[in-house]
Structures
1.
Amino acid sequence: EAGVTQFPSHSVIEKGQTVTLRCDPISGHDNLYWYRRVMGKEIKFLLHFVKESKQDESGMPNNRFLAERTGGTYSTLKVQPAELEDSGVYFCASSRTLVQETQYFGPGTRLLVL
Amino acid sequence: SQQGEEDPQALSIQEGENATMNCSYKTSINNLQWYRQNSGRGLVHLILIRSNEREKHSGRLRVTLDTSKKSSSLLITASRAADTASYFCATDDYNNNDMRFGAGTRLTVKP
């Protein structure tokens, strides 16, 4: 079974540009989570999808961040316009159901905003 | 295989008992972190232990790190039903700008 994949693995952009991160969860996993880790700090929750619906987006820092999961399969996280403080590692995780809580994490996308 | 592998995968205990979860990793690390996730919510950071530390306490939590064995343990003492959650370890490797998560341990504390 393929794991959670994320694309790109790295992204370097200039302040003001737009970047779109993609996450492909494990097939059949209804729950998809986005997390962010800013340099040297702990992981912080961004949002949670159940299928295509946003279950909880309380962790989204501001309206420059837009997450979508059309069709309930892969998800994208767009940052527009990117700011310097958006640099960090963005992780995606998926799980089958809430009853089975084990989450499987992707390798992360390392974003650097210059 | 996966960095930051936790065992057991699932643990069920009675309230008041202690719960011990283990995590093993393969590469060098700068620190290791333990996180908790309740049903349907995001991760909550519990504790971070640096590679030069051997033990750390926070309330009912005790974390140990053995870099020679590349392993860590999380002990929750006097468990409560509210401790029911999944617990993950994550390793930080600054040299490779890498952070890896394990699959987690699902802890169930029965009242």
Note: Chain B touches chain A through 22 residues (CB under 8 Å).
2.
Amino acid sequence: QVQLVQSGAEVKKPGASVKVSCKASGYSFISYFIHWVRQAPGQGLEWMGIINPSANSTSYAQKFQGRVTMTRDTSTSTVYMELSSLRSEDTAVYYCTRGARGSYYRDYFDYWGQGTLVTVSS
Amino acid sequence: EIVLTQSPGTLSLSPGERATLSCRASQSVGSYYLAWYQQKPGQAPRLLIHAASSRATGIPDRFSGSGSGTDFTLTISRLEPEDFAVYYCQQYGSSPITFGQGTRLEIK
């Protein structure tokens, strides 16, 4: 069965960086794009960007341009999301999720990781 | 970017009743580039509906979606206890992908 398993919770200080991993299994890793979506406490969902594991190409939401980097390791079927220059407003649960249609923007999400809580606090 | 506005913010109903949730877009998302998700506390969102009206695999037929352009609706025909959760709509007709702010469906 399709699974996306994320790394554990992180606590970071303002100005630091965090790198969250998402290990995929149960399907062909290079056949589906992976998106990252975050959710601040008690808030809604916010799309951050996308990585194409096959071409190793990425596209980021304008809000995160310059601060986010998405990478992949095909040998372990793992995708990574690194967010730098952290501030308190970045405290959120970060989800990796699989795009169902294989389109950069015209896609919905059929499988989700369990989420990784990133807390930014001094 | 396309802004999605969900209404009502909170819906209080009893098991067995019918729920109607609305999602309105600030501009057309196309005929069917709209999805619905259910989220329970401490869990990741779960895909319910895509292409405005297509149920995802394993979703009961009491869930149905309709609409096109800028106005979309999620209907739950007869509420079961496990349906009380937060529901989000998502558009994927235009970059960037955006979500509505959510509708909380609570037990009356």
Note: The interface with chain A takes residues 33, 35, 37, 44-47, 50, 56, 88, 90, 92-102 of chain B (CB under 8 Å).
